[in-house]
Amino acid sequence: MPRGIVVLLNVFVESQELENVTQALEKLPEVTDLYEVTGEYDLVALIRTDSITTFRSLLKDKILRIKGIRSTVSAVIIHTHKREGKPFAD
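RE: above sequence
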């Protein structure tokens, strides 16, 4: 598995900007998966970067500058127990 970090980024979006925010996030190569979801958040992005420092730069210099993003909540994945229906070992 490639080194680096994986982050689940929960995104709150101003409703009229949902399409624009989605398109902007789709263009970022670090965003490997992007989901529109029900519940508290509007979008959930899976982000892969080489370090926490790189993630911080991506978040403050690119993601939080996208018009229509109200706020985000980040969860750094620290261990994978199961992936694609199968137990996962490092």
